[in-house]
Amino acid sequence: MTKENKSKITKICCIGAGYVGGPTMVVFADKCPHINFYVVDINEKKIEAWNQDDLKKLPVYEPGLDQLVKKCRGNNLFFSSDIENNIANSDMIFISVNTPTKTRGIGAGKASNLMYVEKCARQVAMYAKNHTIVVEKSTLPVRTAEVIKTILEEAQDSIQNNPNKPTFDVLSNPEFLSEGSAIKDLNVPDRVLIGGESEEAINKLCEIYKNWVPEVKILRTNIWSSELAKLTANAFLAQRISSINSIAALCESTGADIREVSRAIGTDNRIGSKFLDSGPGFGGSCFKKDILNLVYLSKHFGLPEVAAFWESVVEMNSWHQHRISKLIVQKLFGTITGKKIAILGFAFKANTNDTRESAAIQICKDLLEEGANLIIHDPIVDENQIKIDLKTSNNNQKTNLQFSNSWSFTNSLDNVFIEAHAVVILTEWSEYSNIDWVNIAKMMKKPGWVFDSRLIVNSKKVLEANLKLWRIGDGT
Ligand code: UDX
Ligand code: ADP
Fold this sequence. Notes:
Elements: E1 11-15, H1 21-31, E2 36-40, H2 44-51, H3 65-72, E3 77-80, H4 83-88, E4 92-95, H5 115-127, E5 131-136, H6 144-158, E6 167-172, H7 182-187, E7 192-196, H8 199-209, E8 218-221, H9 223-254, H10 258-266, H11 287-300, H12 304-331, E9 340-344, H13 359-369, E10 373-377, H14 383-390, E11 406-410, E12 422-425, H15 437-443, E13 449-452, H16 459-464, E14 468-471
Parallel strand pairs: 1-2, 1-4, 2-3, 4-5, 5-6, 7-8, 9-10, 9-12, 10-11, 12-13, 13-14
Antiparallel strand pairs: 6-7
């Protein structure tokens, strides 16, 4: 498939301007002023949002992102809906489209839906000219590169109207950035992983990273190891969170404190201290999806025990979220029907506007199901996104008033607490650590409860305000 091509990379196209493609290309553009980057997306509104003057309204919120966009946009970074021409003019194409879990058909609920990736590959086959290096950036099931390669090769033969007969190399270069710290992660990655067959194509991608990443941090593997390493990294990280959350439940029953347990085990070098914070359960677009991919893969290859092992990580996460909803109901005298509950935070973690798989979605749905009236606060998340996530409009009163469940949204903390029976902290936004509880307690119903699923409030101050406090993993 490879045609010798010694020329330097000068134009890069990224298909998909989402949470991965957007920030990644912004940092690439900052680090490689000699290369032009074209970020394309089928969603024209998203491209408009990336191009607008008001940098506060970029489609992705990440600390530091706006300043880099300001610096590079229009110089060597361009957001465009012209997919065809940008594919045609590029030497290297990153595929950064979404790969949601399939909702129907074979592998439903587990396997990734590769329709967006396939469509991309067909577009690349159709429009590319000359030799093009195609780089998988999205997290994909193992052996997707092979699928992309087959499509590129075979779609070529049937496409009559591409006279250029381009050639391709396919590389896997998974992204390990974590939302909320994406710019830092991209600037100083722990490692860069490149999987592929063609030494020359790998070298070209390496040359790009070498503009800011020390060569020792660039790992070369075969293409399947690279794909599997990405799924495994996410599965291991998620597994730590389910492990610590399972112990948090035990702490609450036994009188131990999860923070002390985390500290005690985290000082063991072999375990390490990171990713041991108990919380409301992991969210984000990757963890659940990637584990379910592993589960699907394991079953496919006749390894049901391996599948069951990893599936339990997701099951624990889901159980943990329901456990929190249940104990809120329990503490509020077994009923929350018609009670106002303030939800602090809807994003799946702080410093992002992303709500995909956020624990807040399940917990809010559970509380609404029990008839609560929620007032949801998040400093960055858009209200329309919450509408989509909860699959109901706000202030949607059911006809039977006894079970009136509703929610409203605010991005200001001013009116959140008035007449509330409880405050539930679900995202660790820094502003929630500095709440003046004495003042808040005066506005709330008595007894007023604070449920802190992120261990960020000052417990002494909450208790001094005569509020009742539940903290995750705190059995003391
Ligand atoms: C993750 C991986 O970290 C990243 O390498 C990969 O590229 C994409 O998936 P992300 O989902 O953006 O990144 O965020 P991450 O920081 O990993 O957090 C995931 C979830 O775990 C969040 O809901 C977070 O609140 C939760 N979490 C994380 C905990 O509950 N406790 C922890 O100690 C760490
Ligand atoms: P991620 O977190 O993986 O970046 P997002 O959903 O935030 O996922 O972004 C993926 C982007 O890919 C979306 O903006 C979507 O519109 C875009 N996309 C999907 N398929 C195509 C395609 N065939 N061509 C161009 N863009 C696409």
